[in-house]
Amino acid sequence: MRLSCDVEMLSRGLASYGMRAKTKPIRSSISIGRRPGASSSKEGLIFLLVCTAKDRNGTKFKLKGNVEQIFGKFVQNGKATIRLKEPAKDICISKADPLQLKNILSVIKLGHLDRNCDLEKIHLTTLNPAKTSQVERLPTKMVVHSRKDYPVTTNFPKTLESLQIMHCKLKKVDSRILELRNLKCLDLSNNNLAKLPDSVGRLNQLAELKLANNQLDRIPLGLLNSGLKHSLQALDLSGNQFKMLPSQLTEFANLVHLKVNDNQLLCLPWNMGQLTRLKFFWAGNNKLQFLPYSFTRLALEEVDMFGNGFQGSGMFPSTQDEGYFPSFVEIAARAVKKYRLMYTERDLPRILIQYLGLAKWCLCGKPCFQPYAQHCSQFSLHRVAHTVAGLDSAGSTTAPVQGFLCSKDCWQRLQSNPNAVWKCSRR
Q1: Angle at CA 220, nearest 5°, toward 354 and 370?
Q2: DSSP character string of 188-249
Q3: Residue 92 pLDDT more than 90?
Q4: pLDDT above 70 for 223
Q5: Quick one: DSSP state of residue 298?
Q6: Which of 11, 48, 82, 399 has the fewest CB atoms within 10 Å, counting from its CB?
Q7: Which helix (H) or strand (E) holds 307?
Q8: Closest CA relative to residue 46, chosen from 32, 65, 31, 29
Q9: Higher pLDDT, 26 or 359
Q10: Which residues pair with 398 in a beta bridge?
């Protein structure tokens, strides 16, 4: 039984003198077994062997009655600590396969308790020096810039944290990439991707996702409703075929960089102001005519929206009659948006999912799908960003923002004071 991982040895004896050894995690191989030539019937012959690249023969630690405590709270993250009595050392394990780590900790407990009847059921080999491949540090970064370099017959190293595959004419995402659970940066730019699988959301440690210059026109719900909402910090969708961005994208609370330039965007999500940590936004060369009113709540470092067809300003009341009452579909949709209920393509028909994607937000903070009225006013982008790229060749930095009003009450309040930031309470 062998486990490849990073190991840091900490001596507790130094801590009693107020000292700490300058150590760092080293790629190691941990195995449990018996000494060569030992009989399985003898007592105390099960050892823990830790091998490194400098010492492939390794250091043996007796297990019987010698484990003071096992700290396994973060086993699912590939981390654990084994505290030994003699010598007084802590074996800190990290970057291990969670399943293998869980199994090896179970065997360590059996060895400590001297449960020979249970150990006999486990195939424990004799302890041998580690091979070079078992103690060498596995790569964490991989770059593929041509089809000839693409791994076809070999797998991607499971330790990869950064993967860049460009100019390989990929038409779909390789399923082997979706098994790289340590991946933090994935760059699939300059390929021929037309669709993303829902399972991309399983890469729950991903902080950067770059998909520039492909043929994408939608983001799957499986990705939008995954753990990426909490981990993703940079998203690059530039050079694709998006006509609109899903409203769920504004729930990515930690998003700092967002690139959507060189698409066919007609509008931005109406609740875009929820991206409170967004600092860099690029949306140039699209077909935007307005910015959503919630855009005025952002606090950006840099914004670039050059080459869009922005229009003028004004207030446009709707043609709804005074006795208008929303449909049951709209009432239900408002509740879904208001309470941020989760849903997938398995829960709702596609037509209802598309309907929910058309949600607009009134200045009072409530969602609506058939607004009572809409308004548009000019807004200086310098109020939300330190660095602003000109919107046209003349260098203009003023763009129209469009808002929606859910009721006659909201419309009258805005008419009475168009420049005020207000909230209304609907009865």
Answers
A1: 20
A2: --SS------GGGGG-TT--EEE--SS------HHHHTSTHHHH--EEE-TTS--S---GGG
A3: yes
A4: yes
A5: -
A6: 11
A7: none
A8: 32
A9: 26
A10: 380
